[in-house]
């Protein structure tokens, strides 16, 4: 499944459920565990040097986080591609994330804005799918960091977790937009630049407006794809 994790001697070879959650969540978000992949409790327990109890507890936590599906007599599996789910979550994101961004912008520090500039430059310079996913996630979550409502930040991060496999697909589709292979990347970069400019000007409303279009374009592009690549 992945590289074995060395058990913590202080736990006598038993991992708490939180450690199992962290391990499996990392595999799911990285794509090492693909959408629809089975997760066998005994294999995870053996890999981590734990009993099956913390694995079962971890799977329940991941189910509540929207990353794992549990079915009686079928066991656990990574949430599969689901066009209806994708459309719904992205529609919710179109409404929620611009509000969070607008609330965040006035509270972002100069250091955070400078870091956003660095991230934007790194995003513009990559065509590697996994690197883009990491940088893009860091960029957007940092733009929300000034929002004073922690519960909203937690909700947004959950949206990003549950749509990670859709974002991976979307990133692979970037080069397919228009006639030029680089067109999709250019559009994504332009949208990031415009959002960053609005943030630098302290215009949360404009940043939120741009973000809504950014998320909407992703939703439409995914709807036009097969969601099976």
UniProtKB/TrEMBL annotation:
Annotated keywords: DNA-binding, Transcription, Transcription regulation
GTP-binding listed as a keyword: no
PROSITE patterns for this protein: HTH_GNTR (PS50949)
One GO MF term attached to the UniProt entry: DNA-binding transcription factor activity
Alphabetical list of Pfam families matching this protein: FCD (PF07729), GntR (PF00392)
Residues annotated as domain HTH gntR-type: 14-81
Keyword Nucleotide-binding: no
UniProt name for this protein: DNA-binding transcriptional regulator, GntR family
């Amino acid at each position: 499944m992945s590289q074995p994790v060395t058990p913590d001697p202080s736990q006598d070879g038993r991992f708490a459920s939180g450690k199992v959650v962290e391990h499996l969540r990392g595999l799911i978000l990285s794509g090492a565990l693909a959408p629809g992949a089975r997760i066998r409790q005994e294999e995870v327990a053996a890999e981590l040097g734990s009993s099956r109890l913390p694995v079962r507890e971890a799977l329940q936590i991941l189910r509540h986080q929207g990353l794992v599906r549990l079915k009686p007599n079928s066991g656990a599996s990574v949430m599969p591609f689901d066009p209806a789910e994708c459309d719904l979550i992205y529609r919710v994101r179109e409404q929620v994330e611009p509000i969070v961004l607008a609330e965040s912008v006035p509270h972002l520090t100069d250091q955070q804005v400078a870091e956003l500039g660095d991230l934007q430059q790194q995003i513009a310079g990559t065509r590697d799918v996994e690197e883009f996913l990491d940088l893009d996630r860091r960029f957007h979550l940092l733009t929300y960091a000034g929002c004073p409502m922690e519960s909203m930040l937690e909700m947004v991060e959950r949206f990003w977790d549950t749509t990670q496999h859709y974002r991976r697909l979307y990133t692979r589709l970037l080069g397919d937009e228009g006639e030029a292979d680089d067109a999709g990347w250019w559009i994504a970069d332009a949208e990031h630049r415009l959002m960053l400019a609005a943030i630098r000007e302290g215009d949360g409303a404009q940043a939120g407006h741009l973000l809504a279009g950014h998320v909407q374009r992703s939703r439409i592009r995914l709807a036009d794809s097969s969601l099976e690549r």
